[in-house]
Design a protein that fits this description.
This protein is 0% helix and 51% strand. It is elongated, with a radius of gyration of 12 Å.
Length: 45
């Protein structure tokens, strides 16, 4: 996983997509831009 900050990827005029998957045990979050995963996180529900 790329450890650079999200600010390194945000460029004016680009679309950013945020996805959230929730289940009984975990929550997962993904941030994408230009078909590239910028950040992923997971935590217990």
């Amino acid at each position: 996983m790329n450890t650079r900050r999200i600010q390194d990827f945000v460029v004016k005029g680009k679309e950013i997509f945020v996805g959230l998957e929730d289940s009984k045990k975990t929550w997962k979050l993904a941030v994408r831009c230009d078909r590239m995963v910028i950040r992923q996180a997971s935590m217990e529900a």
